[in-house]
Amino acid sequence: MTENLNPFAIAQAQLDKAAEILQLDPSMHAFLREPMREFHFTIPVRMDDGTTQVFKGYRVQYNDARGPNKGGLRFHWEETIDTVRALAAWMTWKTAVVDIPLGGGKGGVVCDPRNFTDSELERLSRGYMRAVASHVGLFQDVPAPDVYTHPRIMAWMMDEYETITSKREPGVITGKPLELGGSAGRGDATARGGIYTVREAAKALDINVEGATAAIQGYGNAGTFAHLLAEEILGLKIVAVSDSRGGIYNPQGLKAKETMQLKAETGSVTNAQGVDQITNEELLELDVDVLFPSALENVITSRNAANIKANMIAELANGPTTPNADDVLHANNVYVIPDFLCNAGGVTVSYFEMVQNAYQYYWPEEMVHERLDQKMTKAYWDVHQMAAQKKVNNRVAAYLVAVDRVAQAVQLRGWV
Ligand code: GLU
To answer: Where in the sequence numbering do the catalytic residues fall?
Structure first.
């Protein structure tokens, strides 16, 4: 039987498993299986050549029982409504597992931003914000960066929103440039949070990761900073990295600063000299201690799970591992730090950004790091304890912690 790779079907199947263990009330389970609201719209964009192109846009508000919806916005040619639904569901569990007072949402536009000029990108970003303006806000729904969206896009969107509403409300969106109310420490927050969970996992498993080897699949925001911080904080030796064009391998180790510079200057890590060229698939199967999937969904599936040689997988991407692959990894004793725990550092610092925007007073970077560390460390041990208590893998344990918190909020509100 071929594996179902629809991300929303996967998100629902993961929830179903947790609902069974929690013996969740059937009405509550039915409610948590679906998004509360979703918006579908078209965005006409005047291109530089004078033609108009029409893009499909989405915003899914999955669940706001614990607070305003929160989650990024992705510009990607393979975006589908089911991808956005899955990512919005995972945001709901993510904000719950780190226990920040927010719900879950996600947005997407089906487009290939790699072909856009800056002015086309600006018009698309402003068009997106016009379409969702009456449904977002500091107390309603707060977008942020995700794949192929960056701080400049957040700045254009904030400006469009503030122009429409005739007020200053920087907390309508996070991941902004520092000059416009962004938070110190937001840039590397996703990777930093993930590195903290690896540090805690090493304590829990009583292993020393200093000098251990690692491979990073994906070299966007999460992957690049994971490279830098894995070296800096954990002393890991990164032997392989990859981007959408392919990967590079050097058993002596790849230095973060050099590789980041090469990527910035030439557009791809594959332009490195004196290293072996490998594919993304080969990178995932390397014999390393820690593997960081840091790009997109469905890269560890029933096709390659049995070939994974890493002892630990720290999922900086959302949804990199399918349920079938999870079963194989668990049987093979691979220790997985699941996505919505491992990559929750981004939204945690986004929450700090909202708090700072609300009182217009800004924290130094060290304070952000310290508070992020507290949140990630607590979340890691909550999940670790749940896994030990219920004798389940970390992903199921993370669901048990998060779903229980969301269900309690839904019940206290009297919705179900
Ligand atoms: N896109 C990031 C994520 O998937 C960050 C979301 C946010 O900061 O709201 O967690």
So the answer is: 106
